[in-house]
Amino acid sequence: xxxxxxxxxxxxxxxxxxxxxxxxxxxxxxxxxxxxxxxxxxxxxxxxxxxxxxxxxxxxxxxxxxxxxxxxxxxxxxxxxxxxxxxxxxxxxxxxxxxxxxxxxxxxxxxxxxxxxxxxxxxxxxxxxxxxxxxxxxxxxxxxxxxxxxxxxxxxxxxxxxxxxxxxxxxxxxxxxxxxxxxxxxxxxxxxxxxxxxxxxxxxxxxxxxxxxxxxxxxxxxxxxxxxxxxxxxxxxxxxxxxxxxxxxxxxxxxxxxxxxxxxxxxxxxxxxxxxxxxx
Length: 280
What we know:
The protein is of the alpha/beta class. It contains twelve helices and eight strands. The N and C termini lie far apart (62 Å). Residues 174-242 form the DDE Tnp4 domain.
């Protein structure tokens, strides 16, 4: 029974003189929902067939015909089960996740599309996200031969050099990213980033010229330096073992303002930007 239904029963019990004034006030406050009471029941439940092609692309950033294919590729279960027994099919759950990630929005903004209360939207989205992470996180947290095999690494290096890079053997770009978080009640100094002046978590990624993330490490505490994060990620060892093309050994770009004396020879390099035209 939901809080709304419970409060309606309390009103009926009070009107029927079953409970006293004091009991009614205590129970009414006990079953007051902390979330705003949005009228989600006035909206129809989600059905992909009723979504227009243009709306699908605008809200989910995926073509309507590709959403079932994406669900199959991600190996999502047919039904998404939440801890409090809420159930939805995988297409609806995937669309919730796509809507949530397509553009910064609140769960309350999704009520009109999915016709569900905020807690259900939150739990379903998190269940889908956890499922994808558990099944596919190794593709970016470990060396992925599907996008980092020797032939493709050489293609990446050729494209970067063709754009004006002085190095002929650089296949990607490595850098740390600061993601602000709410100020925690405890351990504030650990997550405080003095450079950005925010409480944060940090991630390290290797970006490829085709727009994909080749490797991701994190999260780590916001105060950690990028060079320290690079060492902790074990990426240098991975590069030393795998960063080879059929023609030569390869490297990744590293900002010249940061130290990299800890890197094995040939795995990491840097160059400066030409201030006159912005080329590298």
